[in-house]
Amino acid sequence: MRHPKSAALASSVLALFAVLLPWPLLGRPVGAESLRKSSYQAGSAPLRIRLQQALNTPGGEALSGLLAGEYASDLESRFRVFSARFPDARWTVNQASPLQDGRPTLEVAVSGSRQSEGLTYALEASQRLVLQAEGERIIGEEVISEQSILSSASPPLPISLLIPEAVLTGSRYDVDVVLDEPLGDAMVAGGLIALTPVQVSLQSTPEIQLAPMHGGGLFKSVQAPFTPGSQTWAVMLVHPDGVITVTKRVRVVRNEEELTL
Q1: Where does the pLDDT of residue 60 fall: very low under 50, low under 70, confident under 90, or very high at 90 and above?
Q2: Average pLDDT of the residues of the chain
Q3: Which domain covers residue 68, as residue numbers?
Q4: Which of 28, 41, 209, 211 is 20 to 30 A from 95, comparing alpha carbons?
């Protein structure tokens, strides 16, 4: 079974959250060295506020005015596509706790809804990130964490995501998506897939094989890659009251001291 068409697959920042929305609005990754040279100061309220205002302004011109670099011209078209899919999307940008190395972070969140094939899908997505800036322009970012939930259930079915933020290379860990309310007589099917970097970058919609779920959710033991980076998971649960799609990005690190940023 495929993701709902409203769930475009991609990755990156304001880009929007893993695979449900995330086109690379800010584009290219930022190396640690350049980030050390010029990290965005989250306490700089004018830029943070301008970013939130720009994300909530239709069109994309306001957002592109905050960006610098070769990827800025690509932002407007991608943002317009997202706005067309979720015309009522509302964004918030708040200061989050700093990293252990002192770099400030922002929490970017978006909520919205979309009609597709007779169903209404509600989106909730969030991302914690470090922005790199030159003056008043954003030139890059480092994603610390991100997740998104897209649901056609009304009212929404409460779920818990029991997925770690970071794991060690080659380790096994659990990916659990739990329905918080008792199932009763309801039957639930679910499936899980790890998205490849190519699937993420091409915004493809891979098949997710569904199977009957027992115990009130999806419970899987998975293995991390043997090289540092990240691993993005897509989970689908089909409930009599609606379909839930979850995406979650997990950092993969080599050393235990890197598990907590």
Answers
A1: confident
A2: 79
A3: 32-258
A4: 28
